[in-house]
Design brief:
The chain is of the alpha/beta class. It contains 10 helices and 8 strands. The protein starts with a helix and ends with a helix.
């Protein structure tokens, strides 16, 4: 059944805004896959991997997100689009060129595209992954490490990879309002990233207390239910338009 869903492109792509903490300005959105077959994109990709369909699903979501963002108009016209890459994507020969060809076919400027990788992708073959990321970056794309600070986190990645951004995992900010150690860790990570010239995105922001601290510490962007969850194209258009009116 999943194979048929993918073949008929019956996968919905939703978009979670990336928001500046101080101004409330929306600068981009992350593309997320959804289907009636799974409660989340993560669950959907687990099913696809088990069925040997992960590559087809990943490329379908990436293609749909790029082509949608390429024709965004009005309040969405200048937004950046972030797409997630599977660890397997970067291990496949020719994937980087395939992605560049898809960007060209969609007619979207490479500078509007950010690719997000998880740290587990780097365990496959770090030199090869670094080379392919460097190729994408040389063509104008931005590179982000997703869920930074958990799992296979290594500070060495910040100096050995061609990165533009780190996305700090939601698990690290849950207790920053009341937990002294959590505050110390997150503040240090933000400071280190900024000193290395990297942008910092915080995931999973759910309270105004968290947002106030993150803005004060110099976080560049945030995602989370305090701002907005995953939105359809129509919902994203209304959300961005409302934010622009509020800022005016």
């Amino acid at each position: 059944m999943l194979e048929s869903v993918i073949a008929h492109e019956q996968i919905e792509v939703l978009y979670q805004p990336l928001i500046e903490p101080r101004t409330g300005r929306i600068v981009g959105a992350e593309a997320l896959a959804r289907s009636t077959m799974a409660t989340s994109g993560e669950a959907l990709f687990k099913r696809a991997t088990a069925a040997g369909l992960d590559e087809r699903l990943s490329r379908l979501v990436q293609r749909k997100a790029l082509r949608c963002a390429a024709v965004w108009e009005g309040p969405l016209k200048d937004l950046k689009i972030s797409i997630n890459l599977l660890p397997q994507d970067l291990s496949r020969d020719g994937f980087d060129q395939w992605l560049l060809d898809e960007i060209a076919a969609a007619g979207i400027a490479p500078s509007r595209v950010t690719v997000e990788i998880t740290e587990s992708a780097l365990l496959i073959n770090q030199p090869v992954v670094a080379e392919r990321l460097a190729h994408l970056r040389s063509e104008g794309l931005s590179i982000a490490i997703d869920d930074f600070g958990t799992g296979y986190a290594s500070l060495a990645y910040l100096t050995s990879l061609p990165l533009d951004m780190i996305k700090i995992d939601r698990g690290l900010i849950t207790d920053i309002v009341g937990g002294e150690r959590d505050r110390i860790v997150v503040k240090a990570m933000i400071r280190l990233a900024r000193e290395l010239g990297l942008q910092v995105v915080i995931e999973g922001v759910e309270s105004t207390g968290q947002l106030a601290l993150l803005a004060d510490w110099g976080c560049d962007l945030y995602q989370g239910f305090l701002g907005a969850g995953a939105l359809s194209h129509e919902e994203l258009t209304r959300f961005v338009a409302a934010a622009q009116v509020e800022a005016a």
